[in-house]
Specification:
single chain; MetI-like fold; two-stranded antiparallel ribbon; 16 helices; 2 strands; 1% strand; globular; transmembrane; ABC transporter permease
Length: 313
């Protein structure tokens, strides 16, 4: 006996086949992107099993000894763990406090400019550092801040009669890293906010002007509330990357004198994984970062919804 559920199931199956045939060229366009994610994103996820094994290259991936949570226990009891947490969180805090608002402020200022040619020229100028390699940025930093002929220390020597060893000082490490990030990425990060600002209803500004609001009041009561959802979404994504400090930049700026403040999870994984050959332990550290990032994304998304925002899912 054929039931109604069976009929609906057959119809839905025919509908799927019909759509696959009808839109076959669109699915063909989708295939390369889907293949990329399957090969380079999902298939490598099997590698997280290394975090629960004592990986030995001569035994192979599947035949290495299963050790369960031993690598995680080693991480949490390691004397460097608190230092890693502190250094990584402080760098992320610097980025959230100083770097995250910078693109918003620049986008608001650019949006207020009435000279279109000047606005485009300024946008191009602040976008350009994004395309410069971080190696070049670090090289520029060394040339500017070095005590051996650096511009900044030359000025300090002429004005105050003293020099500051910025590159070796643990105190200056985090501000320099933050300033590098701001100089390189602030202009590029304004693109999303400028796109959001272009969608603000012009009639809202007209109504604000009728009510006697000046440019500052219009920005505070019209512009910022209109892009609030974009700010919240980007902040949620930023929270998910709170344990990511950027390997290349930190590695290039690290030396023996500032290592105590420069030791973060990204460089730690490199040193214990590749230079010391502790592949399983390094994988456990990376998995810990990923789990914390996922928890922070879900938690911040939940809080955003509790405060009336749409969140990211």
């Amino acid at each position: 006996m054929v039931t109604s559920a069976t009929v609906v199931k057959k119809r839905s199956r025919k509908g799927v086949i019909y759509n696959l045939i009808k839109y076959r060229y669109l699915y063909m366009l989708l295939f390369p992107g889907l293949l990329y994610f399957l090969v380079f994103k999902y298939y490598p996820m099997w590698g997280v099993l290394l975090a629960f094994k004592n990986y030995q290259p001569f035994l192979g991936f599947w035949h290495s000894q299963w050790v369960g949570m031993q690598n995680f226990n080693q991480l949490f009891t390691n004397f460097e763990f608190l230092q890693l947490i502190r250094n990584t969180l402080l760098l992320s805090l610097y980025n959230i406090v100083f770097f995250f608002p910078a693109p918003i402020i620049i986008a608001l200022l650019l949006n207020e400019m009435r000279k279109l040619w000047f606005r485009k020229a300024l946008q191009t100028a602040i976008y350009l550092p994004h395309f410069i390699s971080i190696v070049v940025v670090v090289g520029i930093t060394f040339d500017v801040l070095t005590t051996n002929g650096g511009v900044v220390n030359h000025i300090l020597q002429q004005v105050f009669g003293t020099q500051i060893d910025f590159l070796s000082s643990p105190i200056w490490f985090r501000p320099i890293i933050t300033l590098q990030t701001m100089w390189k990425e602030t202009g590029w990060s304004t693109i999303l906010f400028l796109a959001a600002l272009s969608n603000v209803d012009v009639e809202l500004y007209d109504a604000a002007r009728v009510d006697g609001a000046g440019r500052w009041r219009q920005m505070w009561h019209v512009t910022l509330p209109s892009i609030r959802s974009t700010i919240v979404i980007l902040l949620i994504l930023r929270m998910g990357a709170i344990l990511n400090s950027g390997f290349e930049q930190i590695y290039l700026m690290t030396n023996s004198l500032n290592q105590n403040v420069a030791n973060v999870f990204d460089t730690y994984v490199y040193f214990v994984g590749l230079t010391q050959g502790s592949f399983s332990y390094a994988t456990a550290v990376g998995l810990f970062k990923a789990v914390v990032g996922a928890i922070l994304i879900f938690g911040s998304n939940y809080l955003a919804k509790r405060f009336g925002e749409s969140g990211i899912f």
